[in-house]
């Protein structure tokens, strides 16, 4: 941002002392920042000899570029005649541009090299875990097992911290969800590995105990492999992971194509549209063929599938006519056909959602008592092999029901991260079911074995935990369907003691009681409605990567998590969590205001004053919310007043956001239509865009890995410190 300020400054014949001093301060600030950054890079280079040469070269380039910028901005003595020969930003602006490009590319190189080091750390940690696992598989005595498992536990802790930090740094929500699923498997399997191995050591000749243990080791190896695939962005044997398309995503894409006919009648073929519908209807067979779908839902889905084919036939007929002659009547008929087709697809979407979620709700309610698991534990301790066999059949039936439930929920999950969570849940039920059966058989064969009993308990707890997770997943899927965004954990950044807030230990975390929740319910509901409005506005933008859209979506996600707090739900558990979230929300609002100002520089439309007015209003509101969120309060009444003020100010900012998004969208569309409401971008923007492809700006990059991790190196803080 400092470099942008320098390059974008306007040359004026008269330069005040204030302007000259400001330019010099910016140049010096850039040079100092580069110096600190490079010091960290050089420290990393000394610790990692295989990349030392590359890192050192990048650091030297960055330092040289920073010094050049400082020299070119040394303009304070320009008024003195003896300094006329001195080259400055005013006499050689291209020199600053060159230095800026060199600085951005070298800084990016340092960050990429540091990133490679982190990846190497994760791979090295995984290799240590695998090597120790191999030793654990081969041990034959308890004493040896205890020693090696102690080492294994420490290595797993280190791996958990490394991958946890990496998960937080991931920007791709899909990868983040896959990483979370793999780490959850490793966490649960560590305890399973302990009890399964001990059982196998106690009963070395027991086949079911061996099968139980082998299953745990196999699952852990798969999870470790998936973590490395995500971290290195690769798949074994060069495979590409192609997850089957869900009904929701198919319908969304189909509707986008159909609605696109309003703008362009020739951008796709009728065969293309027909194929898309066929794929969607093939997936509905997962519902109509399922033994667990009710007769009523099955009939409705078949009826709507038939209707969708008829609506598409009518649409194609009118569409083909409109291509030949574009009369007013035909265009009106086309609009009606588009609306009817989209309405039919919405009804189909609603029907499959109802079928999946009602089945899930019924199954989860039915299995909450865990009767089969309790019976397996009792009959296992009794050594009743016949009864254990009977209940293992019942557990297998339960497993098939839950697996089918997960498959159907995946179709209606609404977002890729939730789809991945459904796939993970399906895998968990598929694997844990047989493991419970082998653990129960072992106990039945050795009914007096305490370790066999403990082992069965651990696997049963994993099953119960997954059922509990399914209830939360079902609620999230319903939230998405009803237009509420799921919480984006990336924005929460909750403080950790001693790391983000020096005064955190002195603060006592407080939850809202029922009476306080009731008082704030109306305000929370208003906030909830505004998040839905903002979400619907951002969905109208063609360019979902637009900076304004991304900041708007981020604010909406955070506001939704604050709404959930007013209901006593979500990840914000205490008032301190809420205040921290409010600070981050205000910071995101400030970033949005900066993006709006940059956008307004390109606008010469009548609406520009209104855009600037709303942007300024947003800046003022951000400052007020920051002050409120940081204010120190004592006592229950004062804390509730602060909560109320934070929610109120957040609501007001969301109201302004609801006005800004359609205004910006309108200005962009005017420009696209050729009305020329945007000025051509100045040359410096083109330079940034050209270099941006291969060299992202430091500000953007630091969000993923960047300075935070580099600072961790220079202050000798390890990733283990994070807990």
From TrEMBL:
Superkingdom, natural source: Eukaryota
Alphabetical UniProt keywords: Cytoplasm
GO biological process, one term: Rho protein signal transduction
Compartment(s) of residence: Cytoplasm
InterPro entries according to UniProt: Alpha-catenin/vinculin-like_sf, CTNNAL1, Vinculin/catenin
Gene3D superfamilies: Alpha-catenin/vinculin-like
GO CC list: cytoplasm
Entry similarity comment: Belongs to the vinculin/alpha-catenin family.
PANTHER family: ALPHA-CATULIN
Name of the protein in question: Alpha-catulin
Gene: Ctnnal1
